[in-house]
Specification:
5 helices; five-stranded mixed β-sheet; Ubiquitin-like (UB roll); 15 strands; 2 domains; six-stranded mixed β-sheet; globular; alpha/beta
């Protein structure tokens, strides 16, 4: 299978290996280092979702957690997960994804008819439309249809087979973001003897330097990243948390992190949690 939109070189994609994946029942190929979004784009797939209200066609807009459009349903059965951003979902061999908020298919969506009625469906129309007639009997008749149209994806209906952990930690410096500035800040703090935790929502450290030909301290960017990571990993008071999203900062410099431990694996090991919730109390936070 050819990937007609794939660049011949560049980036952190390993073009020597291939992953097979599925999107909306169609089989495609990608490479290690791809996200679901980059693999779809490489295969010429640009139409990936529908807008919430009028079901208008939507494509991939961003490159990370800021992505507003490419929300997909991952996996099937007990491990299915709705509303996953294709730009943050790591590609692995056998990944299965589907578009959301459409019926019966993405290309032919009955919900798109609401676009033709947009002048009659202004913002907030639903707050009053479904209050008449004011009888429980009437509501019970159309409740099923209203609920079916609400939301984006579908939660799993089977029991969750995975387990989850939570972990409390304290540190002197919490660095949120593993780009060049974050790595430099972590190295400087650790060199002073501070207890440091570094987190990044992606699987790769380096941020804007990934795939860049820039030079730092007289060497290539990739070499600088590798050297800093090697030094940080060797420090006993430094914790590196990849695939970890900082989702909230609370009183007393308490930060919540969600670490996706095995979401990138086709078959999670039985002894490893799927995700881990970190509650970190930091003396100082570098964002």
């Amino acid at each position: 299978m050819t990937q007609s939109f794939r660049l011949p070189a560049g980036g952190i994609v390993d073009r020597s290996r291939r992953f097979a994946f599925e999107f909306d029942g169609t089989h495609y190929e990608g490479h290690p280092g791809d996200t679901l979004a980059s693999a779809l784009l490489a295969n010429g797939v640009h139409f990936v979702s529908r807008s919430f209200k009028y079901h208008r066609p939507r494509g991939i807009h961003g490159a990370g957690s800021e992505e507003p459009n490419a929300l997909v349903q991952l996996s099937r059965g007990a491990r299915t997960e709705p509303n996953v951003r294709a730009t943050t979902a790591e590609l692995f061999d056998g990944l299965v994804a589907a578009s959301q908020n459409r019926w019966p298919s993405l290309a032919f969506d009955v919900g798109a008819l609401s676009g033709a009625l947009s002048r009659f469906l202004p913002a907030g129309f639903y707050y009053k439309t479904f209050m008449w007639p004011p009888t429980p009997k009437a509501w019970l008749r159309y409740e099923h249809f209203v609920r079916a149209a609400a939301g984006m994806g579908r939660a799993a209906s089977e029991s969750d087979p995975d387990r989850y952990e939570h972990h409390h930690a304290h540190c002197d410096v919490l660095v949120i973001g593993g780009g060049p500035a974050g790595l430099a800040a972590a190295r400087a703090a650790a060199a002073k003897g501070a207890r440091v935790v570094v987190c990044d929502e992606g699987p790769w450290w380096g941020g804007s330097l990934l795939g860049d030909d820039a030079t730092i301290d007289g060497g290539r960017a990739a070499e600088w990243i590798a050297a800093v990571l090697q030094w940080l990993a060797a420090q006993p008071d430094v914790t590196l948390l990849a695939r970890s999203t900082a989702f909230g900062c609370y009183d007393g410099n308490l930060v919540g992190l969600l670490e996706r431990v095995t979401d990138h694996l086709p078959a999670p090991p039985a002894h490893v949690p799927r995700q881990r919730l970190w509650k970190i109390r930091a003396h100082a936070i570098v964002l």
